[in-house]
Design a protein that fits this description.
The complex is a heterotrimer of chains A (279), B (251) and C (278). Chain A is of the alpha/beta class and 279 residues long. Chain A is built from 9 helices and 10 strands. In chain A, helix 4 packs across helix 5 and helix 7 crosses helix 9. By secondary structure, chain C is an all-alpha fold. Chain C has one domain: Orthogonal Bundle (MetI-like fold). The two termini of chain C are 19 Å apart. The chains are: A alpha/beta (279), B mainly alpha (251), C mainly alpha (278). At the B-C interface, helix 1, helix 4, helix 5, helix 6 and helix 9 of B face helix 1, helix 2, helix 5, helix 6 and helix 9 of C.
Chain lengths: 279, 251, 278
Amino acid sequence: MGALHRIDPAPAAATILQRPSALDPSAGDPVVQVRGITKRYGGSVEALKDIDLDIPRGKLTTLLGPSGCGKTTLLKIIAGLLEPSSGEVRVNGREVTGPGPERAFVFQDFALMPWATVLRNAAFGLELRGVPRREREDIGRHYIREVGLAGFEERYPHELSGGMRQRVGLARALAVKAEVLLLDEPFSAVDEQTRRKFQEDLLRLVAQEKKTFLFVTHSIEEAVYLSDGIVMLSRRPGRINRIIEPAIDRSGSPDEIRRDKHYLDTVEEIWHGLRDYVD
Amino acid sequence: MTLCGVRVPMMASLIVWCILWEIVGRMELIFLVPPFTGVLSAAWELLHNPKYLDATAVTLRSFALGMTLAIAVGVPLGILMGRVRAADRLLGMWVNMFVSAPLSALVPILMILFGMGTATVVVTVFLFSVWIIVLDTRAGVQHVPGSLVEMARSYGASRWQLMTRIVLLAALPEILAGIRLGLIRGVKGVVIGQLLVSIIGYGELFELYSRNFLMEEFWALTILLFLFAMLIAEAVGVLEKKIEYYAGVRQ
Amino acid sequence: MKTTMDGVAAMPGPRHGAGGTLLRAAAAMGGGMLLWRLASIALFCGLWEVAGRVPISPAFPSFSATAIAFRDMMADGSLPAAFAVTLQPLVLGVVISAVLGVSAGVLMGLRRGVEWVAAPVFIVFQAAPMAALIPLVTFVYGIGLTAKVLAVCMLALPVIALNGYKAVRNVNPSLLAMARSFMASPWQRVVKIIIPDASPVIFAGLRLGVSAGFIGVILAELLITPTGIGDLITYHRSIANYAEMYASIASIILFSALTLAVLQRIETVFFRPEKQGA
């Protein structure tokens, strides 16, 4: 039935669209299919309206928009943490009715248990699934190392900086070996330096883990720097404004990328797009 | 809770408890629990009983005096502790101790120092309520944003202006919270004081009713007292809500 | 910043913010220097001594006289014996209140139905002067240990229950969402998230319960029948041994203060590692 719905006309700038859109429903093998999602709060406030969206497998897709545009709401609906007022979400073709093992969520405020060590926090998803202690701790250790926190396994969250705490949140999401990682503004509570380092690490993880990342942010630079595809949402009621594929050449060093003309043009382009409908 | 789609307010369950009370009372299981309706009619009669009205007047006067004293002493002391480090360090330990100490143990001392009368009850109310007012005021003053104080200074506020126009007002939400808690403690203080002195106000009535096994009157008195305590707490709560908006702005 | 009902630990923030003003004040002062503390004690005792020497009242012994009386009563064993008697109903009452109160509080927090039925009762009991009911328990349970235990429970139970209730209701919603996203079962949600996250506030409630229990046991000993410390107070008052009477009262107040300080310390060490050294 997905074929009946089409994504809102997304007149993305021709200069940016260099290859056929992977976000178009006609393109093959999307992991997440969003169909006609509308979310109303309290019966009247419309947070999201008629969202149709396909998230391609193995890519990092960003939901970008001003605060209050419902991007976090959309992410939580995909996670199964919120129920849509109408419409449906399918993951690997199966309808989402609640949280599932193929999706893992990274929380904006980290959501770490203050009474548990980094290791227990990282392995918590596995603990809930009843994985034996030995095994889950081995997996936990692996991913703690993977996110660059080796040596902090026995520390408590309050002993870590904000950036390190979010790394624990990321390790926890990776440890359950979900196919789709849903990240809700993971860097918003982190200072700028840490944030850049974290973004670079995230890019490495995306390349290495071959998972699908769906990322919410309000930072244009961050979106362009990280994403394979950017879904721009307009302000309330949230609608898909347009879809952009930055196709940034990431072969250079981070600093080179950030000075790259194509990168800067894309940022500028989005800026103008946003300004048009903010005014 | 919702029943048949209708939201039933939480406090409504108290009605259920009262009905239960009535049933237990009617079954005459324990002489201690007379039917609730009996208690209500006793309460009605009590409200027209000059002895009760006298006792209420005495109790209210002790309560009001004690509370006035507690606020008059507690708020300035709290401000002093909030602004002056040395005062905070010298007094902090004792205030913290007395705020949770079993002050009922002090009432026998008060009885020999102030006599078996209103003065003892007034001092009991004062002692029960003053410490929490001091602590909350102190906390409020310490949480006044530094930028607000600096702003006042940079516009040339005098010490007195700074205190009355900035510190006192900025700390008002906490001060009121402290006074609300102080009032609740004060009600407990007036009851405990009168129970221990036992020859004035409600203490005398409680003594009279329980000695003569007048259970309906005893419960009626208790319920009226509870109502009074709840009403006072509610009243300050309403006042607090009115100024809460700027407590919200602050954080 | 908010302070809630009398004695109930306040929740200033969404995260572990229990204890409210009291706790914060205590924590701020806990880091105080020993010197200031000694000066503070010296000031208090000095004022007491002067007031006693003036004297402001024939029934107001000086600090030194009270201290000597305290030493004598410790030496002849009357004070320790009285404490042993007083502590029985206190400990029993607090333990009973803790078990009942925590269970009731957690249930109220978890189940809407239980909340609807029970929470208002505890709210009323918390705000109302329960001391008025103490004479009543003597009718049913006489003047023995049971009556005194009941007096302690009447004062301690509401605080403990309400704190448990608020603790569970104020569990970090973000942690609950996290548990849900990792598909925790309802049982796992309670055992692995709600109880651990609520335990600091629950424990703070226990501490407040102990504080209320002290008030209860002293009232019981003064109102029901003089035993233990209450007996010492009443007896020495009747024979105008004011120094001994003051020593008894000061010792029970001091004892309760020390107990509460120890509980506070335990709370910081075990439940709030993030506040240590702050």
